[in-house]
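ok trying again, last paste got cut off:
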Amino acid sequence: MDNYSFKIYTDTSGLPDDWNVLAKENIFLSREYLEVLQASAPTNMECHFIAILENEKLMGIALSQFLDLNKLESLGDRDNCLKTSARNFVFKRFSSYVLFIGNNMLTGQNAFALAENTNNTQAIRTLKLAAAALKDNYQKKGMKIHLTSFKDFSEDQTEQFRSAGFENYYEFSIQPNMVFTIDENWKSEQDYIDSLSKKYRDQYKRARKKATGIEKRKMELTDIIEYEETIYDLYYYVAKNAPFNTFFLAKNHFSKFKEILKDKFLFYGYFIDNKMIGFNTLIKNGNTIDTYFLGYDEEIQKQRMVYLNMLYDMIAYSINNGFSKITFARTALEIKSSVGATPVEMYGFIEHGNFILNKNMACIFGYLEPETVWQQRNPFKQVIAVA
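nice, full thing came through this time. structure:
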């Protein structure tokens, strides 16, 4: 007999006292991070927090995000072509209300966490029921959910979804998560540099030389608030020129993040003559560093290789502070591979509320998902095995 049930929360103040016990391995499911979302979610996003229970005992926690794409002025302006215009029209017309079980602002399995003795299949089946309840709630408010998606999962987790009754969902894999693994023998940035082949050591030297005169500053809460307008402008330029976007951050997002997560959230500004020309953000997530949103002045970025220097700075920080890996997420795949990140395939399940469209989801998904053609690089010296 299935004794699992669920409870849906709209406010973090009502979460069970032991919520963070299950979130200890993932900061993005912690009460504190969910407070950030509650305080500064994108204007077209609503978050719900789901408890999975077995006879009232907390067995799992999950995040749900509802997106209203009608509230966006743009779904991404980089690729100004007929296919992009058609894609945007179809999204607005047939897929404007989207429900995620997971976090559409991040890459990786940030959908749920389960207690060790949980029946995973039953828990996922319960999450499916919770998603159905959320869809019913939105239907009552006059918003019929077009797309329901569970994302991002490793290949071995997909079998659990199949066992949990996801046969009507289309299983998909899109751009990979770029993950940088830190060699346990590296104790400093120089160790990383020494591991690079000549071509990529030259790339490193060229980038660092281009960045001469750029000052990097670690910024605290008061600094972030002081530069909030400039920060948002730099972020918005990068976000708006992405190939596809389903949300834009609230202007106070970074200051709220710093206020609530404190030293677990790192904000670095890049300045020329005291003028901010870029920034990046990092999140301490156990023994992993997760890269978060960034922004830059495009002209200066081109001239001074700002983005590449940011990647090198992230690597240096992570090595110097004893982290084991960096989650670089799923944008700019080729340049991330040129510094040593490797692709990790992620999978998801998606269902359209229209029966006919759902039957043809394989064709529709392939058309709507922006295709990225890229070449994987390997910047490290080749190790020659000795017999």
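cool. The first strand starts at residue 4 and ends at 9. The chain is about 40% helix and 25% strand.
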